[in-house]
Amino acid sequence: MAKRAGPFLSGLRSVAIRQHKWKSSVSTQAKMPPCDFVPEKYKSYPYERMQKIREQNITPVLRLYYKKPLLLHQGHMQWLFDYEGRRYLDLFAGIVTVSVGHCHPKVTMATQKQLARLWHTSNVYMHPSIHEYAEKLTSLLPDPLKVVYLTNSGSEANDLAMFMARLYTRNFDIISFRGAYHGGSPYTLGLTSVGLYKHAVANGFGCSTTMVPDVFRGLWGGSHCRDSPVQTVRKCNCSEGVCHANDQYIEQFKDCLNTSVPKTIAGFIAEPIQGVNGAVQYPRRFLKEAYQLVRERGGVCISDEVQTGFGRTGSHFWGFQTHDVVPDIVTLAKGIGNGFPMAAVVTTKEIASHLAQNLHFNTFGGSALACVVGAAVLDAIEEDNLQKNSEDVGTYMLLELAKLRDKFEIVGDVRGKGLMIGVEMVTDKDSRRPLPAEEIGQIWEDCKDMGVLLGRGGLYSQTFRIKPPMCITKKDVDFAVEVFHTALQRHMERAAAK
After folding, report:
1. Prediction pTM value
2. Pairing of strands 267-270, 174-177
3. How far is residue 278's CA from residue 461's CA, in Å, rounded to a whole number?
4. SS3 274
5. Rounded CA gap, 417 and 304, in Å?
6. Which tens digits make up the pLDDT trace of 16-48?
């Protein structure tokens, strides 16, 4: 009697059948939407000299994208221009940082005015902009999150949040998800759980990681787990209001609490949607249940809104609101300043008071210039209706990308909310094995050559990260999707020719 084919061979056969149905139809190059902005003529060093300076004078740890790195010269809203005047649609926004658009005129004008008035006094003096901004920012957060400490970067904000959690609770241990990125400082590196960022030095004392409830790549998943217009291709038999995957991941979280930390803890930190890990989303109820378990252990709940904040998820201004929770501490950065280096920690008056028992000082945090920039960004989000744009354009893009997932076997998952989007690449949907880096890299390069800049993420760098300035339009999305479609078709042709 012939032996049954194993699951691996069966998977290969099913993939082969699906791939056989695909037919080559590489389209002509997509037409870039018009832009009436004309960049200035580039007048700095030649490209080759820039490369030499890079090799000799800039630390090698700062790695560059693309085989031939871009030399960018100017930006305007969702567009970037290189030294030769080529235009690119920026779908990565300076690593999810340019929130309202490159050189947004309102933010630029406010910054220029303040540059001529007052840059810096430090916090030992009062100046109008820090008070005006603190009031404006905290008005957007629910009670009792009404006290802000302004800093300069996301790592610094998360570092301070850890410190405050430990001071307030008088406990030490903090839990984070595997796959999380919360900063690269020696303190926050314990919370960051991505191998590429781990250096061979002692870090992470008092930090424990728990399984990320990833409903696509994780142990459990289903067809209606996450808060997104697009669900995974994984099937489940859960009835309405029931999520087996969520229940299993909560059991894993309980296991971490019971085995890896003391009976009382300092806190738990999580991104509402994981950023560096490739827009990973959790089951809808997970954070709400996890917060309750953490608080039962005496810990505080920290929401890392460095990438999800300021309307990017569309339906809400803050990512934590999409999970129906109110954290005890919120950290903000990146989009807070549209590219200007600033960040913030927002918490309750009670938690903030514990930090005030001794001196804690920040020279540049809350400078007159930074606060004017931050206020102008908030105004631009409101006046340009960018939260609503994130919801409308983001949902449109997710649904268009889902069509490519249904067409191409190597597009394993399309996920996200608003303009926080991930497209995970796989060898096939059955195994969910990451597509080899070389193949992903060629698709990425092809998109760049056709005028679209994408980010990369995931533990294996297998996910395209799409987090553009929130001002992009549906016409921009049509262009980007057509470019990505063409790059996928070219990949299929290369694969067929081997």
Report:
1. 0.93
2. parallel
3. 8
4. strand
5. 16
6. 434 434 444 444 578 999 999 999 999 999 999
